[in-house]
Amino acid sequence: MKKTSLFYGMLAGGAVGAAAALLTTPASGKKVRAQLKETSADLIASAKDISQNVKALKESVHELSTDGLQVAKEAIGDIKQFIKDWQRSIEPNKDALQNEIKEIQRTIEHLEQELKKKPS
To answer: Would you give the DSSP letter of residue 2?
Structure first.
């Protein structure tokens, strides 16, 4: 929602409220004018407070999104580094397993040759 739309809506609501008060009040003109001054001053103060709150909220959202983006980038970097470290740590085991598989294959081939040599 745009700030201007909110502000115009509040002003229109205040004007309608003031008009309704003028039309329905049984008070004298002096009292009505005094109440209008007080009401308009309150309305202006409320509008200023709302404007300041909206600005503060906007700044907070911006700061939060900036901080969240930074945290996400750091987390992604940490995860990438963890994966690289893990890949490096399993490399020796990977080579050892491949060597063991080759040795097992050679042993199986040797046993097959021995079985072929023996008469049934």
So the answer is: -
Structure confidence by residue, pLDDT tens digits, 54-78: 888 888 888 888 888 888 899 999 9
Could you tell me the pTM of the whole model? 0.41
Q: Which two tokens stand for residue 63?
A: 């700061």
Which helix (H) or strand (E) segment is 77 a member of?
A: helix 29-117
Q: Are the C-beta atoms of residues 36 and 28 closer than 8 Å to each other? A: no
Buried b (16+ CB within 10 A) or exposed e, 50-72: eeeeeeeeeeeeeeeeeeeeeee
**Termini Cα distance of the chain:** 90
Q: Are 62 and 72 in contact (CB under 8 A)?
A: no
- DSSP label of 118: S
Q: What are the residue ranges spanned by the domains of the chain?
A: 3-117
Any idea of the CA torsion for 71, 73, 75, 81, to the nearest 10 degrees? -150
